[in-house]
Amino acid sequence: MDQAALMDDHSESIVAGTITAGTVGKQQKRVENTVAAMEDPPVLASFSLTHVHYNAADRLSYLCAWLALAPQALCVIYVTLIWSSREAEILLMAAGQFVCEVLNWGLKRWIKEERPPEMHGKGYGMPSSHAQYVTFFSLSLTLFLLFRHDPHPTETHTPFSFLQRLALSVLALVSAAAVAVSRIYLSYHTPRQVLVGCAAGAGFAVVWFGFTTYLRSAGWVDWALEQYLARLFRVRDLVVQEDLADSGWARWEERRLRRQAIRVQGKKSR
């Protein structure tokens, strides 16, 4: 009996020792993993879509950093206008902007010219995508306002005159020039890279305007507007001859005047 008891005690000691050793081993493994993580920290990346390097001591550099976000802002504007207006002209312009970006992507990988040596960013620099983007947008807007937009006056709206549309076009072009110059000031591109980007954006804007003019004259835009998807999403083509807000404003004025007339009649009946 005593020998059996000793055997049981010995077995329990072995089991306890095994459990203790296993626990210590797990703890030691955790410590080793922690030390390894401290010695080899994970590689962190920057979300470069809105990441801009600038000189914090230079106010002009700070302004240029904001100008660098113009393409992102224009993307938001495109999406907002497309969803809120469902205008075919805006869809065509957005499609051209996308193709222009694809063209820039291809040109950069074909030319393979590096950015300025003091630049810490990634990717090739020729041509400047910012310069190409804003030049396409501003020139496309200018061509639309001066050569395609033919607004007619209504009872509730007097459209911009040609001089007003010309002034708006000049403002768009000057803004694009400011964005392009900011890329040089921030050392993201050389002057030549920016000039080539502007030339590519301007050239493609003219080509795309000619292409969309053909689509309109040949009846392709009218055909597309009759298709199921266009009808489903209520795509229309009014901005060429109308103000975007005019129809809604006319309905609001009619409703407002009707309410006023009802109030006046109510007061008279009292």
TrEMBL record:
Task: Copy the pathway line from the protein's UniProt record.
Answer: Protein modification; protein glycosylation
User: GO biological process: what's one of them?
Assistant: protein N-linked glycosylation
Q: What class of enzyme is it?
A: hydrolase
Tell me which residues make up the Phosphatidic acid phosphatase type 2/haloperoxidase domain.
Answer: 90-209
- Its main localization is endoplasmic reticulum
Compartments where found: Endoplasmic reticulum membrane
**Which keywords does the record carry?**
Endoplasmic reticulum, Hydrolase, Membrane, Transmembrane, Transmembrane helix
Give EC number(s), comma-separated. 3.6.1.43
| Record's GO cellular component terms | endoplasmic reticulum membrane
Q: Which Gene3D superfamilies match?
A: Phosphatidic acid phosphatase type 2/haloperoxidase
Q: Which InterPro entries match?
A: Dolichyldiphosphatase_PAP2, PAP2/HPO, PAP2/HPO_sf
The record's catalysed reaction(s) read:
a di-trans,poly-cis-dolichyl diphosphate + H2O = a di-trans,poly-cis-dolichyl phosphate + phosphate + H(+)
Q: Which SMART domains match?
A: acidPPc
Its placement in the membrane is given as: Multi-pass membrane protein
Q: List all membrane-crossing ranges.
A: 60-83, 131-147, 168-188, 194-215
Q: What does this protein do?
A: Required for efficient N-glycosylation. Necessary for maintaining optimal levels of dolichol-linked oligosaccharides. Hydrolyzes dolichyl pyrophosphate at a very high rate and dolichyl monophosphate at a much lower rate. Does not act on phosphatidate.
Tell me the protein family, please.
Belongs to the dolichyldiphosphatase family.
Protein name as annotated: Dolichyldiphosphatase
